[in-house]
User: Which sequence fits this backbone?
């Protein structure tokens, strides 16, 4: 017998690779709503004008909580990347490609590169954001167990 | 009203570690083995002399399903704490973080004699679970969903950039593992005791290019414990030369990968090192022996630079010219480091502290003759946080 019988079919947030994205668990749920619209967004402080990533509910620069949503570019360039063939984390496929990308001078971060074979990517390549569905999380409500859809983003080469 | 306002000297008076490796033992048993080794190292210290315990462990909630860990460990190692009883966690810096906390409590007079004990059980019945849990170490909401969490890709990104910027070579990376494996031969408690030569390191299978098998430290089960005491108590509890904690710092300027200010110059490390050197009233060139966080070979090379042992970009040449080996400018990872000993996160900084204590007392397995100042360093998370502790033979 594999697994724990009484956990069969149950959802355990403690073992979930992804976070709780829905409104009842996340004040920044709009980040994920925007992703569904193909927009990569973050928060900017109305008091001091600083933009931060990831989005917040408090500005770490001036401590104001008067924040607004702003769009980030969804296209960027690969600065440096690595390809992992072995020991790829659970839920991911080899080659697992991670790259530091530059979003048109506005932000640099590390992202997964998808839709790309091993040996294909080059430094300087242009990439664009892709949004994909994740397994839903389950939430107990008065109506019983409900599914909450989830999404996340990666980048793919522009060809 | 009694005002506790002291400023006391703090000494490290005992230390021991369990066997590191893939262990057929539970987390609580590994803690007991570490404590037993620590008690045996200095039989003058009895559990009743110890008034506080700080427990360093990064993953008990996932891998042992146990919170409220410090009282459990205290119960198992015979200590009835009356000044402090708590767990601390900052992943790979947890052990050194515990030492800093104990130091501060003793220095201020809030505690007198404290055991800092760290352990980790990383190998699970099903191997995938270990790797899955590793993803909890990075920003769970914004980095982990990219599969960022297992460190090899992060350090491969670092290595690629350092090689491009400064001309560091794969051979120079391999020389770090050859040196540390050689140093680790003398450490019976380490995970790996087989030396390797440069050809073996260079022809090993790739993990994440340019990093190969021996460029990466292993996952490890293991524990380590030290006892810190105020100078007054230390004089009663040991006949060995006193070793003082002279400077400490823990610094962090970012957590998520998006906010990493520089991949090849580690700002938090420079900040932590500068503060610790200032506390100790010394310069990098005064350090006689160092235990730095060689989770990957590239890490040790950058640490030479950002700890100030050499100029920026010269780390590759530093190892190549033997400056971090015995007989060189500053022998680094004299007990084998993470690359030989393995890396049970909460135990690592404590294991390093034990080696520096022994070096400064003149009783290390491979002794750096006449060592007066020793340093330990850890990095943790996505190279986000750095912890530095400086030990000295003199009180000031
Ligand atoms: Zn602000």
Assistant:
């Amino acid at each position: 017998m594999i697994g724990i019988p009484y956990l069969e079919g149950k959802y355990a947030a403690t073992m979930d690779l992804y976070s709780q994205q829905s409104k009842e668990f996340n004040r920044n749920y709009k980040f994920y709503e925007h992703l569904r619209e193909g927009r990569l967004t973050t928060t900017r402080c109305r008091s001091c004008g600083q933009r931060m990533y990831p989005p917040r509910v408090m500005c770490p620069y001036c401590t104001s909580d008067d924040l607004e949503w702003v769009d980030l570019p969804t296209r960027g360039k690969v600065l440096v990347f690595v390809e992992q063939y072995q020991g790829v984390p659970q839920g991911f496929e080899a080659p697992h490609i991670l790259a530091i990308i530059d979003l048109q001078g506005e932000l640099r971060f590390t992202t997964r590169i998808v839709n790309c074979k091993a040996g294909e990517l080059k430094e300087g390549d242009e990439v664009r954001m892709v949004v994909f569905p994740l397994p839903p999380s389950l939430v107990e409500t008065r109506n019983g167990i409900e599914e909450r859809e989830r999404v996340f983003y990666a980048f793919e080469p522009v060809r | 009203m009694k005002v506790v306002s002291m400023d006391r000297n703090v000494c490290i008076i005992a230390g021991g570690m369990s066997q590191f490796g893939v262990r057929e033992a539970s987390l609580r048993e590994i803690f007991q083995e570490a404590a037993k080794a620590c008690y045996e190292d200095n039989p003058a210290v009895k559990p009743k002399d110890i008034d506080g315990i700080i427990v360093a462990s990064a993953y008990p909630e996932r891998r042992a399903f146990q919170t409220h860990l410090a009282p459990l460990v205290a119960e198992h190692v015979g200590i009835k704490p009356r000044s402090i009883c708590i767990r601390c966690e900052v992943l790979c810096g947890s052990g050194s973080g515990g030492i800093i906390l104990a130091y501060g409590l003793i220095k201020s007079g809030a505690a007198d004699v404290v055991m800092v004990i760290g352990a980790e059980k990383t190998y699970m019945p099903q191997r995938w679970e270990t790797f899955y849990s590793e993803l909890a170490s990075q920003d769970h909401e914004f980095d982990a969903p990219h599969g960022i969490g297992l460190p090899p890709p992060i350090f491969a990104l670092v290595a690629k950039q350092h090689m491009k910027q400064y001309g560091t070579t794969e051979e120079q990376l391999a020389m770090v593992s050859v040196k540390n494996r050689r140093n680790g031969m003398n450490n019976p408690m380490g995970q790996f005791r087989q030396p390797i030569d440069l050809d073996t390191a260079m022809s090993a299978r790739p993990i994440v290019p340019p990093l190969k098998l021996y460029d990466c430290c292993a996952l490890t089960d293991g524990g380590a414990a030290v006892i810190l005491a105020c100078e007054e108590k230390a004089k009663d509890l040991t006949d060995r030369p006193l070793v003082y904690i002279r400077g400490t710092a823990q610094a962090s300027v970012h957590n998520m990968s998006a906010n990493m200010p520089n991949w090849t110059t580690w700002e938090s490390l420079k900040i932590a090192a500068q503060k610790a050197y200032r506390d100790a009233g010394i310069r990098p060139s005064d350090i006689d022996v160092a235990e730095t966080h060689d989770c990957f070979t590239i890490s040790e090379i950058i640490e030479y630079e950002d700890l100030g042992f050499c100029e920026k970009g010269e780390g590759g040449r530093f190892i190549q010219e033997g400056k971090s080996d015995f007989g060189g400018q500053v022998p680094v990872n004299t007990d084998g480091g993470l690359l030989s000993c393995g890396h049970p996160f909460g135990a690592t900084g404590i294991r390093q502290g034990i080696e520096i204590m022994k070096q400064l007392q003149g009783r290390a397995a491979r002794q750096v003759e006449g060592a007066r100042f020793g340093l330990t360093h850890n990095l943790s998370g996505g190279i986000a946080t750095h912890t530095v502790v400086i030990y000295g033979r003199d009180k000031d």
Notes: Chain A touches chain B at residues 14-15, 17-19, 53-54, 80-92, 96, 98, 100, 107-112, 134, 152, 154 (CB under 8 Å). The first helix of chain A runs from residue 30 to 36. Chain A has one helix and eight strands. The radius of gyration of chain A is 18 Å.
